Amino acid sequence: MYPPAPFVNVISFKHRRIIKEEIFSKETVLDVGSGISRGPGSWLWKNVRRNQYTKLDIVKAPDIDIVANALDMPMDSETIDVVILQSVPEHIDDITLLFKEAHRILKFGGLVYIEMPFLQGVHGDPNDYWRCTPAAIDFLLKNKFSHVVSGVSAGPMGALIWIFSDLCSNILPFRIVNLVLRFVLRWALSPLRYFDKFFVYTKAANRLSAENYFLYRKN
Predict the structure, then answer these.
(1) CATH number, domain containing residue 139
(2) Could you tell me if residue 3 is inside a domain?
(3) Partner of 182 for a Cys bridge, out of 27, 156, 169, 212, CB 3.0 to 4.6 A?
(4) Given pLDDT bands bounded at 50, 70 and 90, which one contains residue 35?
(5) Which distant-in-sequence residues (6+ apart) come within 8 Å of 193 by Cβ?
């Protein structure tokens, strides 16, 4: 009954294959933020065995291997092959330090994989700090990482559905009414998400994406 996510994942099959092969062919894979088991980001974890990666989160939970702050991870320098930051950077107050810490623990030639929102409403978990264009991510990682693949993971229709449903369900001062509006709108508009499968190849997707993905290699 819970409404579906406002967007679908539109990463090409070619790039999905490259990303998964690059990541899960490595020995030490660290998932920071405990991963995404449902929704558009869950594609990364399909057909992946649990013993292929380690989960790190700031909150203790049954499936978390390491409880730690992403800004001060308890790993020695240059000991990790892959760091995954899937829908995580926007929730970290010091995003520059986050990328420095990922760089520190990665081996030379190690990979960092990022999925990060662009045009999305605020969603605190518990806080929401950042939105970045692809140029901003490249700026933050330049000189320390080299680009492998990147692109749009959620398109402009997903951004429109998110923003419109958030707008309509946050106008009135009545929580129950707003929840009902959000529920109805998310279900009613959800079929429109699939237009992004076609829009991803347009200029609109690059300018108005709901989310982008990035795979970089440590220099």
Answers:
(1) 3.40.50.150
(2) no
(3) 169
(4) low
(5) 4, 5, 6, 7, 8, 157, 158, 161
